[in-house]
Amino acid sequence: MRDEPLPKPVRDPIPKLRDPLPKLRDPIGPLGPGTIQPFSLATPHHAMLGGGLTAADPNGVAYLAQLQQQLLDVEAAVAQARATAAQATADAGRLEDSAASLVSAYEQVLNSLRGDGNT
Prior knowledge:
The protein has a domain at 54-118. It is mostly helical. It has three helices and no strands.
């Protein structure tokens, strides 16, 4: 199914005074020196590295190394917390099993006492 009317009109239904001029090209361009690279614009966590200026800056390198160390520390803390949570889950399961066996033993003792008292 076609959306356009048939036959096609010869003239444009929206008149313009003149044809649009071609756009002038930027002499520097988006990949020129000192600009943020397009990939950096798409990924904000890489924007600090755009243009390659911070790689040569000792402060930038030190900051990047500090961030990497903090990231490793946080990942280690998350792994430790997950291990602790897994251990706590296992402990809770064992305690629930113990509680269930104690409840069963308690009910058996109550039933035996009731049986002894009725006879």
